[in-house]
Design a protein that fits this description.
The chain is of the alpha+beta class. It contains 3 helices and 7 strands, in the order ααββαβββββ. It is globular.
Length: 150
């Protein structure tokens, strides 16, 4: 069946769900977004299959002192149909970290290249790759809530 507008919306939501699961350090939710043999290619290596994806998420939570206090914002999503059940997806992602109760600082910008496939009634990552990452070029960019609090 050809890729529909509803499919494109689901694919875009898949990217957002990844960001949210990663922000929470939810290893099961991260792994569930991939096919059982899916892979995630990062600067730290290639993580292939459900158990490797869970282990990667656990390692992130252990190693990152700000895990659980981040927000990944996905933007500029482009979906290109490869066939009825497979799409190429590119996107940008900005990662923000909570500094205090009123401020977020952008800590990273990245670009993703994904292959997503139809899996039953949903879409999943067959392959997710971070193709560019820009932590070194970022200056301190802080979003603050300047509203008066009572």
């Amino acid at each position: 069946m050809p890729v529909t507008g509803a499919d494109r919306a689901y694919i875009q939501e898949l990217l957002a769900r990844f960001g949210r699961a990663w922000d929470r350090g939810d290893q099961d939710a991260v792994a569930e977004l991939f096919t059982p043999d899916g892979e995630f290619v990062t600067r730290g290596g290639v993580f292939h299959g459900t158990e490797a994806l869970r282990a990667m998420t656990r390692a992130y939570v252990r190693q990152m002192p700000f895990a659980g206090r981040t927000q990944h914002w996905v933007t500029n999503v482009v979906v290109e149909e490869l066939d009825d059940d497979k799409c190429s997806v590119t996107s940008y992602c900005g990662a923000f970290r909570e500094i205090d109760t009123n401020s977020l600082a952008m800590t990273m910008m990245s670009e993703y290249a994904d292959i997503v496939v139809r899996s039953g009634d949903r879409w999943r990552f067959a392959r997710r790759e971070i193709v560019k990452i820009y932590p070194d070029r970022l200056k301190s960019f802080v979003l603050q809530d300047d509203r008066e609090t009572s």
